[in-house]
Amino acid sequence: MADTSLHHNQTSPQSAAPVRARAASLHHVVLLAAMGAVLLVAGPWMFDTYLLNILIKAFFFAIAAITVDILWGYTGYLTFGQSAFFGIGAYAAGLTFTHAGFSASTALLAMGTTLLGCAAVAGLVGWLSFYRGASPFFATVISLVLPIVLTQLLLSGGSFTGSSSGLTGYPTFDGSIEAWYWAAGSLLTVAGVIGWVLVRSDAGRMLLAIRDNEARCTYLGINTSRVKTTLLIAMGVMAGIAGFGYSSFSGVVAPELTGFALGTELIIWVALGGRGTLWGPLASGVLVNVATAYLSSSMPFAWQLILGAAFVVVIVLFPQGLIPLLLQPFGLSRDVARAPLLRERAVTPGAQASGTALRMRGVTKNFGALKVLRGIDFEAQSGELVGLIGPNGAGKTTLMRCMSDGIERSGGTVELCGIDIRQLPPEVCVHLGLGRKFQNANIFESLTVAECLRIAGTRLERPSLLRQNPVLQLPAYALHVLHTTALDHKLTTVARDLSHGEQQALELAMVLALKPRVVLLDEPTAGLTKTERTQIGELLSSLAHQHGLCCLLVEHDLDLVAQISTRIVVLHQGTIVMQGSFQEVVNSPLVKTIYSGDARPQGEHA
């Protein structure tokens, strides 16, 4: 296909303000970064030995806080378990140096143990927490149990682990306080930069998408369990490295470094600094540790009360955290979106193949004794737009769930493009050629229009860990949706700020960005105006008749169904009672009886 790029997104008046805002934001970022560099370099000459000692430890704790923010603030995984990984790194150094002495080889052994131990434990926790169907609450409970179990193991270790007293006085790196300050500060800087690059990249936007709407991610072909497990392993290793540094500097390890209390404190620091801001938790982790060191000795009980009260106040009154409020005058409290260049992605011949695209044989769905679907036999061809109608409760949406998720049906077989989906999850069905639009607009509310569309293209283009791609490639029919609804002029608009009709159109464009062969549409015109319904109807008709997609449409607007459908299927009480042309169906006495509310499925009439 021709390469049709749309340059107006970069030169339109709407984009001028964001460009100026990005320039101002970059200027402020450079200014604050320069101030931080000055503090890091000049710290040993500005602070006394006591404060330097506190800051070094605070830097290591702040790294752990960053990992919590990436997991919780950006991905939505509330975890108490990062203290366990911090403790694994700390004890890897403490145990190795205590029992094997200190040398270059033992230091490498301790670091290797840290990396492998944290990765292995994080992989196990991810496998237990993010299996198919696991709830976020269950994952949080697993993260809470982890530090408790690890602490008990250390307490049961006797003289080997030091039990409740921990390990002290072991040999470690011989460095001055100034060298440790620069080393710890540099490590914190590196961790912050890595986190900043990650969360601003296309892969980082995928984390936000998982946080906003994990179910929609699975129906875009994203294996969210794999993503979260991989991220947990990376953040576990980062926290472990911080623990290794803390133990190597202090020469002391204790079970408290792995405990539930530290895991809770990390969450508090993230909430106080600003969840999902990265720099907020970093600053909060440092400042709270410094304040604790100076105030805990003079007011040990009152200080904990003050910190707890501050946490409650911030959660209630300033849920975005304190640091974003302080950075707001500098224009750093928000990330200004950049409008990408739209470009058409060529559709391969396989996406327009002919033949049977969807086949169902004997499909049933039971909820206990209640039979919702009863032996559904159904086929749909490429290039066909099948209207699925029936009264409320007929089982239309349930039938769509059975088509798109292998675990949903109780019996029978479903084939997508000639492949039996068996018990496969939705993300695998998407890779087989499925696209599903839900009744209510199912989008990522905190992301921009362009970011939503880019997440939808993850199956076709692996997102970068380092940058945002300035070009957004979409199939011709997805671009047509954007042009028809004027969404191509709102690429930098946050999805929650769109009208209802625009959100419906955005979800349709996201589904089409997958380049599907089978498109399931559950009441796509619900709540739209007459003009919007006409636009969507024309778009849906073109998908089947011009682009050769197989479309299954559930719709209560019979006028729309009559205009665009090639065939009508009537579902009633879990069975297909009739199919044919629109005129054949609407003129059928059986269908009239069904909609009057006085009919039973075929085979159950007296």
Separation of the first and last Cα atoms: 59 Å
Give the C-level CATH assignment of the largest domain.
Answer: Mainly Alpha
From the spread of the alpha carbons, the general shape counts as elongated
Q: Please tally the helical runs, counting DSSP H or I stretches of 4 or more residues.
A: 24
Find the CATH topology of the largest domain.
ABC transporter involved in vitamin B12 uptake, BtuC
Helix content: 55-70%
What's the CATH architecture of the largest domain? Answer: Orthogonal Bundle
Multimerization status: single chain
Mean pLDDT: 86
Protein name: Inner-membrane translocator
InterPro entries: AAA+_ATPase, ABC_AA/LPS_Transport, ABC_transp_permease, ABC_transporter-like_ATP-bd, ABC_transporter-like_CS, LivM-like, P-loop_NTPase
Pfam families: ABC_tran, BPD_transp_2
Keywords: ATP-binding, Cell membrane, Membrane, Nucleotide-binding, Transmembrane, Transmembrane helix, Transport
